[in-house]
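[job 4471] stage=fold_predict status=RUNNING
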Amino acid sequence: MKPLGNAWDELLAEEFASAYYLELRAFLKTEYGSRTIYPNMFDIFNALKFTDYPKVRAVILGQDPYHGPGQAHGLAFSVQKGVPTPPSLANIYKELQQDLGITPPNHGNLEHWAQQGVLLLNTALTVRGGQANSHRSKGWEQLTDRIIALLNDRSEPMVFLLWGANARGKVPLITNPNHLILTAPHPSPLSAHSGFFGCRHFSAANEFLRPHGGEIDWQIPT
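[job 4471] inference complete, writing structure tokens
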């Protein structure tokens, strides 16, 4: 794989050389060569490329990438401009508006959040087209566990927004009392009404971060 170009390269060097990751790479080589897999292989690690380790202030943890054509581009819940906003992201925008009064943008690209230190990470970083959770338990969870553990080790306070059962499974990894853990159901239409709506995670994150380096601007430019 090509270097990520930031601190994650050194921090994850042992993982990328480990037996489980080499098995995962072999699996992915077969998958990309024989099936439709999302995202594009060059976008798999965009979350780490966009948000360097020392700059992370918040982590939004999802399940796995969107599995429809043209949607996933390596940032959890985000799609490129010009791609219709998926239902889960539309529900995130609804909660954002209810929580902070922010009008939903006319696109679904969340790079603005990533550039401010919001790590938009999924628990699994690839998926078969049309088959949600199809790359679960193939090795990605071990890598993303390590990413969460490395962030947990940092002394600088950060917020972990864990949405859905897969994401909430990371809670035991976050033991540092300097950090804030916020959990909610997944924003999918199947579960958003079970507690995602009304969770007010965006305002809670900013309230926590305000004394520790400033708020996140959740307003997404058009």
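[job 4471] summary: Residues 19-34 form the longest helix (16 residues).
[job 4471] exit 0
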